[in-house]
Amino acid sequence: MKKADTLIKALTFDVFGTVVDWRTTVIEEASRIGRTKCLNVDWSGFADAWRAGYRQAMDRVRRGELPWMNLDAIHGMLLDRLLAELDIAGMTEAEKERINRVWHRLKAWPDSVSGLARLRKRFIVAALSNGNMALLTNLSKNAGLSWDCILSAELARHYKTDNEVYRMAADLLELQPEQVMMVAAHKEDLRAAQAIGFKTAFVLRPLEYGPEGRPDLEPDPAFDIVASDFHDLAEKLGA
Amino acid sequence: MKKADTLIKALTFDVFGTVVDWRTTVIEEASRIGRTKCLNVDWSGFADAWRAGYRQAMDRVRRGELPWMNLDAIHGMLLDRLLAELDIAGMTEAEKERINRVWHRLKAWPDSVSGLARLRKRFIVAALSNGNMALLTNLSKNAGLSWDCILSAELARHYKTDNEVYRMAADLLELQPEQVMMVAAHKEDLRAAQAIGFKTAFVLRPLEYGPEGRPDLEPDPAFDIVASDFHDLAEKLGA
Fold it and tell me: CA-CA distances (angstroms) from residue B196 to B91, B157, B179?
């Protein structure tokens, strides 16, 4: 991609995995709460199961098998199920709510805060995530992430990778799809954005699924940019 | 209002007039474009007529006499009418678009940038404006205003003072109405927010309508706070 691209006006960012390290934060916070309740649980497995359940539940919402519910509601439904499977009883609603809100307190990858700030000098920088508005707002405030605006799948009442979400983003920004670049660590997100005309940047996050994780990091020539982090992305965009 | 209020989690800000000085910017920019076209027009009257027309058109949308259209579309429709009334012909679509986008480039009041930054340290600080998302995003970026999130009437497809707009804001933030304080220079905005349970802060902007303007600055004991600017508001909120 040529430097100083003048066509691109806005960058829209996937958040979970791309901007924040959900797995480490969920494990840390759940372990801490677990210790206070004297629970003996494999919290890494707990985090992975929670995340895997989210994909399944979201797909059921996308297929219309579940009514629309936002991500906090999906997380809460899954948490109830996980606690039952683990035979953990006696948690108060407030305690469960405290655990469910861990998704509002995820930590950013080391380059995220400074990388987004650098990119904001040149582009409109927006979140475009399946997280709901309150989650994204609280998460960003807590992690020190600054956006020009937050766009949530909740506003379209569709989840990515439904094309309605990407179209909503371009429409709300009053931009043509080719003026927007989707930035994500996940190929299916980029392919769906590309299908309606977005530019694409694939950012490698090798640790998203932990040290044992095996994410798909294979560069794909279909994407406009492959970047090792947000500063590399800024470099490649001439920002 | 007692200092260090712990109930309030978020402040939602009206933008036109409360955060930005729409009138001065519209006059300056329209005059500049007018000079390049050798037009002899009373640009102050032009700005006031444009703004007055917006209120009427928005009310027609609210009553269902016009279909939903966002603020950029309302401004564009009114601009065509104003140019016709002033017998100004021969403007290209690009020139008209350039004038219409003046609303994306409004200047902030002198205390707005630093005042919002100060309030953000303590509260979720969100725009809650009839401006559309693109307008608010571009305006904020241009003026250096930073929000935790931007909430636009466009997302509810209702204009303030319809209660749907305030409810949407509380719902998207996952807060109870009493955890949110509406901040505005306009009493009708505050009264509508108060009617569904928001706290209210009345900020005095004596120059919104220019040196000859006569805005209603009378304090009203129904509001929780009356403030002379955003730093005074921060002081009164213990922020």
Answer: 45, 18, 12
